[in-house]
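Need tokens for this chain, all 116 residues.
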Amino acid sequence: MIIGLSLYQIILIIISLIFLFSGITKFFRREKSQTLFKLISTIFIWGAVLVFSIFPELTHSISKKLGLGENLNTLIFIGFVILFMIVFKIINILERIERNISEIVRKEALEKIERK
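Here are the structure tokens for all 116 residues:
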């Protein structure tokens, strides 16, 4: 344990830092797959994962204010992390497919213009 952090907290911190760093570097490299919306979403979601993994008692205080049980927090948090990872993967796949379709349509249009 590092500074009183458990193994799963350390793993979540590392994963969230990797996703944050990756999203920010993709945006500043002006990669096609990284939009401002994706950057803001990445910072918000993975920043929240980072904060909640460093300060897990924050989730307990929020769940108490919402009237949820304390044992449920961990399962809900892990579920959200998994769902966000899946959603980001799906968004990336859809954007790649959209780019490929646009490229194919452009090539076809240019070929039709050249034939005339």
